[in-house]
Structure formats: C-alpha cells, structure tokens
UniProtKB/TrEMBL annotation:
The keyword Signal is assigned to this record: yes
InterPro entries membership: Glutamic_endopeptidase (IPR053168), Neprosin (IPR004314), Neprosin_propep (IPR025521)
Name the record gives this protein: Neprosin PEP catalytic domain-containing protein
Boundaries of every Neprosin PEP catalytic domain copy: 181-435
Coiled-coil positions: none
Organism: Paspalum notatum var. saurae
Keywords assigned: Signal
Signal peptide location: 1-23
Length: 435
C-alpha cells in the first residue's frame, strides 16, 4: 500500500562510512580533569540545542530538538547537510565531491496486511501504553524528542568510548553453542528464531514487565533481532524492544529502546540516539524513555507492538511502535548484509549474568517466572511475523527455540487462532536448579 510521501533533501559530503563524528576519544584513564573535559565534550556532541524542554515525572529531561539537528546528521554521510523541501538539483563543487541524500519523512510502503492485522489487535487489547514524559507536555511539530544524556550517565560507563554500546558477542547464535563458552560474554538468552530464507522485516506484540536487576552492570531486555551476515566480526543487527538497564539509564524503569551494529558491536552502532545512524521523524515517542503501565503478576497485562521492515522502494529499514507511531529509519548505507536482506530473525529475552559472588545472577528475564506458568504470570511474545520478499507480513515457518541454560531461563513455543505464532519465555535466574 503506497503512502503519501513528503521528503527532505540533505546536501552531504561523502566520507568514510564507519567513522563516527559523535564518538569521543579516550578512556577512563588519564587525570580527572582530562576525563571531565572529555565527558563535557561528549555531552556537548550528544545533547543538541533544544527548542523546548520537558521534565518527565521519572526524572528524565526530554529535549525537543529540531529534526534537522538530530544526532543522525553527525554521520559523515549526512554531515554538512542543508535541509530544504523535497528535491533540488545536484550541486557541483570544484574542490569537493558532493551527493544528494533524500531523507524520507514517511516510508514509501508499509508491509501488506499490517493494517488489517492491527484492527484485530486493537479490538483484542484496548490497553494504551504511553511514555511517562507525555504527562508533562509534548514536542512541537518539526522536532523530535531526545532523552537528555547526563554527566552521571556517561560516568557509569566503563569508558566514554563504550558509553551506549553493547558488548561484543551479545547476540544469541542458536546454530552453534559451545557448552564450555556458555557465559563467555556474560549474556544469556531465551529466544524463538527463524533462519534459512531472506527476510525483509519482523513484527511482534511483546508483553511488558519490570524485571528485577541484581547488579548495576547487568540488564534485562525483551526484543526482536534483524540479523545479517555471520556471527563473526561482520554481523549486522537491528534490534528493538524494551529493557531495564541501571547502568545505561541510572534507574530500574522499563524503557523503549533500539540498537544497531554493522560489525558485531565492535565500533559501529549504539542504543537509541546515542550515536549517529538512526534518523527519527516522529515527535511523539522518545527512544530510551520510560513506558507505562507495565504488567502485574496475576493481574493486568500490557504489551507493545514493534515492527521493523525494509522499504522495498528506498531500501531503508523502518521502525514502527504500536499501530500509529512510525518512528524513523536506519539508512541502508549503514549496513553491508542488511543492505540486501536479513538471514535470521530472533525474538525473545536477554540478560547479563555477571556471576556475582561466583554464582548465577538473580536478574530476572521477562516477568521473572518460567514459561509453564502461562498467561498473567509468564512473559510472552505473540503474533510474531516476518516480512517476505513481496513485502507481505506472514507467520514464520520452521520456528526454533534456544536457551543456554533452561533451568535459569526457558522458552516454550505455541500457536493458536488468537495469538498466531507465540511463545512464553523468561525465568528468575538463580534458583535451586540454577546455582
């Protein structure tokens, strides 16, 4: 279904693809004064000048930044841009090679079947999930909401360079598990997955909880992964879902998040808008901001819809939150394998197990309860779908499941008429059977 499209045009200077102008050099070493100077410099790059500011009840500060001043435009391929309406003729310069990048304000196409499915979903689940900062205001048109990064956020990171980045080897590889290396990366998972075809997107309705985190350097998240390439140094990944991460955010709130990498989390990519890459167009949803309400054990259940798909016309990877919020896109030039298609889709949970005191962490995944407890007690993904080469949403075929230690966190697949393909997942971590 073609959508009406407006566009912006950026005049850019071509440069090295994977350098990140927003990254700050240096590490935790050096004198305190040097580190403070580096932190201030990094904050200046991250926190763009706002046109309006909103204080959230949870303590966050949301800056409403003009859409043309967002972190995406720090990328070398989008730097030195000029923003103007729709198309303009190519400019020539005798000293520099320049090119025109078209910035989409809407996807050219949504996946076929999306809106029919959304109508059914909205009838089944009338609960509305929102973000806390909405209680105190909204961002004006032509701006995007960005959660302000504070000095203490950066100081919690192991280094300024690693702030906002995942560790290497954090993506589950269900095709190759070495029992002797189960916790090499400190990451554990309970997921469903498909592989063996070309995939152009994925969708899921994800149950929202607030799992307990034992250590400040651990996290718990529930997300979908769009994966391309091998699980070596060249892995491409687009990720979206919810997470609880005291180290990244400074609290235990459940937050909407995204992530991307084109080199297996080594140098490229980051959470949310903490580096250049993702181009946001939506003025209503802030990535990294708290979402509420959340599900209660034995009580009300709440979930969110996440859709990521590749626009078949422009080739960019788009993100939609809920049935109404198209948030923005990852330009195809960020990736190698995902410039074409994904080779694997994963859905599920991930935790960091730092093995405090030499035993398994008690950090919870999902609701903190095992799948067999079922609805209202265990966490779930329902109506999981993939986007095929014809831009159609469809049920995945040949869904597998994977977990490193099922006595700590487990997953159980299912299928029925109301929920389509679904699974329950999660667990408490350390228990009598998970020492």
């Amino acid at each position: 279904m073609a959508a009406a499209r407006t566009c912006l045009v950026a005049l850019v200077v071509a440069a090295a693809l994977f350098s990140d102008a927003g990254a700050a050099a240096g590490s935790a070493g050096g004198t305190l004064r040097q580190r403070q100077r580096k932190v201030r410099s990094h904050l200046k790059r991250l926190n763009k000048a706002p046109l309006a500011t909103i204080e959230s009840p949870d303590g966050d500060i949301i800056d409403c930044v003009h859409i043309s001043n967002q972190p995406a435009f720090d990328h070398p391929f989008l730097k030195n841009h000029t923003i103007q309406q729709c198309f303009s003729p190519t400019h020539h310069d005798s000293t520099q090679r320049r090119s025109i990048i078209t910035l989409q304000m809407q996807p050219a196409y949504h996946p076929e079947g999306l809106y029919d499915e959304s109508k059914v979903a909205s009838q089944q689940n009338a609960q509305i999930i929102t973000q806390m900062w909405h209680q105190n205001g909204k961002c004006p048109e032509n701006t995007i909401p960005i959660r302000r990064t504070k000095k203490e956020d950066v100081l919690r990171a192991s280094s300024i360079r690693r702030y906002g980045k995942k560790r290497h080897r954090s993506t589950p590889n269900p095709m190759s598990v070495d029992p002797d290396m189960l916790n090499e990366s400190g990451h554990q998972h309970a997921i469903a997955y498909v592989e063996g075809d070309k995939y152009y997107g994925a969708k899921a309705t994800i149950n929202v909880w607030q799992p307990k985190i034992e250590q400040g350097n651990e996290f718990s998240l529930s997300q979908l992964w769009i994966l391309g390439g091998s699980f070596g140094q060249d892995l491409n990944s687009i990720e979206a879902g919810w997470q609880v991460s005291p180290d990244l955010y400074g609290d235990n709130n459940t937050r909407l998040f995204t992530y991307w990498t084109s080199d297996a989390y080594q140098a490229t990519g980051c959470y949310n808008l903490l580096c250049s890459g993702f181009i946001q167009i939506n003025n209503q949803i802030a990535m990294g901001a708290s979402i509420f309400p959340i599900s209660n054990y034995g009580g009300s259940q709440y979930d969110i819809n996440i859709l990521v798909w590749k626009d078949p016309k422009e080739g960019n990877w788009w993100l939609q939150f809920g049935n109404d919020y198209v948030l923005g896109y990852w330009p195809s030039f960020l990736f190698s394998y995902l410039a074409d298609s994904a080779s694997m889709i994963e859905w599920g949970g991930e935790v960091v197990n730092s093995e405090p005191d030499g035993s398994h962490t008690t950090t919870q995944m999902g609701s903190g309860h095992f799948p067999e407890e079922g609805f209202g007690k265990a966490s779930y993904f329902r109506n999981i779908q993939v986007v095929d080469s014809s831009n159609n949403l469809k049920a995945p075929r040949g869904v597998g499941s994977f977990t490193e230690q099922s006595n700590c966190y487990d997953v159980q697949n299912g299928n029925n008429g109301d929920w389509g393909t679904y699974f329950y997942y999660g667990g408490p971590g350390k228990n009598a059977n998970c020492p």
